[in-house]
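REQUEST FORM: STRUCTURE PREDICTION
Request ID: SP-0412
Submitted by: Lab K.M.
Chain count: 1
Length (residues): 455
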Amino acid sequence: MPVPEEGSNLAEAPAPPITVGHEVRGRHEFRGLRTTEHCFTVPLDHFTPDADAETITVFAREYVSTRHTPAEAARLPWLLYLQGGPGGRGNRWTSLGGWAKAAARDFRILMLDQRGTGLSTPADRNTLALRGDDAAQAAYLEHFRADSIVADAELIRSALGSGPWTIYGQSYGGFCALSYLSFAPEGLREALITGGLGPLSGAADQVYRATFARVEARNAEYFARYPKDRPVVNRIAAHLRETEEFLPDGGRLTVERFQMVGSFLGGNTRMDALHYLLEDAFAPAPDGWRLSDSFLEQVYGLVSRAANPLYALMHESIYGQGQATNWAAWRVLEEFPQFSPEAADTLLTGEMIYPWYFEQDPALRPLRGVAELLAAKDDWRRLYKPDQLAANDVPVAAAVYTDDIYVDRDISLATAGSVRGLEVWETADFHHDGIADDGEGIFSRLLELARSADR
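STATUS: Completed
RESULT:
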């Protein structure tokens, strides 16, 4: 169903008749789970009614525990999982563990490949080139934000014959959940959110001022835990300033690209994995010490956007509402010179996106002009409806991580206070990827919190 503009009412903005194509492409059973592969045909543009409009495919995989017979499973309520990102495809599970193990006791889980990712009409340097010039590609990508993802989800829910369903949003999936609560609350039984309460208004700059400070603090925490890694990081940076090193795709590893391994700092156990990455960074070679092949291979997996180019293209647009983002992280970085690649003590960064990504990453170079147009776009559609959130009557529970370096705690709590009835569980026991550490416990706690809330 179309998501209305800010200020409109769903009852006053009925959806035009849309025939949603739905095809089941395969069923499989292994290691305690059954999977069903669904493909849906949905409009590219949900907001401009046109019977002959272009369509795209959205793929989703259903997961059900074999503890339920097929007949029992068919009666289970649906839970839609909204993946982090933007630009990340849905998880491919080979068994039920973590939060999925807990959810599969009572739900049929639908794992969505959000539009443009995985098997959902993927968008990358090759497929986008088929759209035409940079302007045509940018215009196409305007339809790949949370508002369109929510509209996809509502059509899918209808095609599956589901009543209001439960949604579970991690990180960017939480942003999508807030859009869902804004524009299609009638489709929701309850919403669970982990590390995903972004700002409802304001410029993207506020996000990066907060998160750069948290990333700096996380660096200090890391080097206090692993003090011998401080000279190792500085040595790698100094080496890269003087010596050309290349990643497996032929792209050069620069200091600023190396700083991106700070993505490890956003996790609990992943922070310790950073130490393992650094411990064999150098190896002897005929022309002296060089970065090891093992190190370069691992770094490539962390800094290349070949697998998720939409993350780089669309990341700042998730904060764009009626205004341009204009490379917000890059501009705010000037206020934090301690993160300069020339600094004496090199600091590692988080998941911020900078314009040089589109020069240094071979997978992104063809998309530089598109990225510039998206950064300059100043008429982004509104992603949230504050009045609807203030009057919300859908049970919502959210985990807020005190030291989250990607979704700031203070911003999250301000957003939580703007959503009627939203129950907050704040914890310092986990970082942004908490569900990777104790997914079963976090999911169960949030579901109980949502269902026990007084209304």
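NOTES: The first strand starts at residue 21 and ends at 30.
Reviewed by: T.R.
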